[in-house]
Fold:
Amino acid sequence: MSETKRQRILSGIQPTGTFTLGNYIGAVRNWAALQDQFDCLYMVADLHALTVRQVPAELRAHTREAASMLLAAGIDPSRSILFVQSHVPAHTQLNWILCCNSQFGELSRMTQFKDKSAKHPDNVNGGLFTYPALMAADILIYNADLVPVGQDQSQHLELARNIAQRFNSAYSETFVLPNGYITKEGAKIMSLQDPLHKMSKSDTNVNAYILMTDTPDVILRKFKRAVTDSEGIVRADPAEKPGVTNLMSIYSVFTGKDFEEIQREFEGRGYGEFKEAVAETVISALAPIQGEYNRILADKAYVDGILAQGAAAASRLADRMVAKVYKKVGLLQI
Ligand code: AQP
Structure:
């Protein structure tokens, strides 16, 4: 009896700060579940983080913290490959080849490049511009079939497909064309202070986000301060009531209730009570993860051991692909 090969998934997260509730709901929470169905590679994308200026000591700390949080959130190193991007040099080797197969015009059209350039006008660097080629390398180097992405990354995934297709037609079939994997719970969580923008870990306003490590008091306080509107009715309306709708999305994720049920539950009750209920569900959902996280983070040797094992396993796959690509493009093999 022939066994069907499991599809391969690759996903990454930047160690640009402590993960937010947005990172958890939109990405990390789903990663653990995907392990049942797919062969998964999960990467702490430290090289991508460098496209924005980082404090070296903080980047190092955040990288180990990110790995610890992924383990705490259920990534199982005996089933998945968990690694740090810079520990697998093949990513940067393939990146150069893919940069040489990307066009200036297509890279210029990336909205993330435009957004981040506007956000950091003093540091519009080459890495920020060629970021999508490195992201393409991250995916194509493992022949990943599926990439779980939020809407914000779909343009980059499309570009990765275009680069792969261009390479395949110039040099013969080499890369699998990756598809986006949209999880149904992949809600986009918005800033608590400016609900028209997504919740981001690098936001300068600490009240804009809930961190995965925030204490119950801090979580409650941040939700109490969340921007809503003057209507005083808990109902979903993304255009007119983005703040309340965002809180409803968060409540829905952790309670499993849909918007109608939530609306009924809080009928005739004010925003104060609603915000407290949202905070309570988040506090209890995060408590077990926080406990695990603190335990794992304290065991540096364990985390580093997992990352070394992950780097070795990822390198075995990635080095093979780079060797193949170098040969195809005509680099001399000796
Ligand atoms: N607010 C969000 N809601 C849902 N999903 C989100 N993600 C990020 N923010 C939200 C998802 O998290 C994954 C990893 O993201 P990343 O760290 O690689 O970069 P990012 O998307 O730029 O995340 P941040 O928190 O906004 O980081 P900074 O502030 O450094 O730019 C991705 O799958 C993303 O969709």
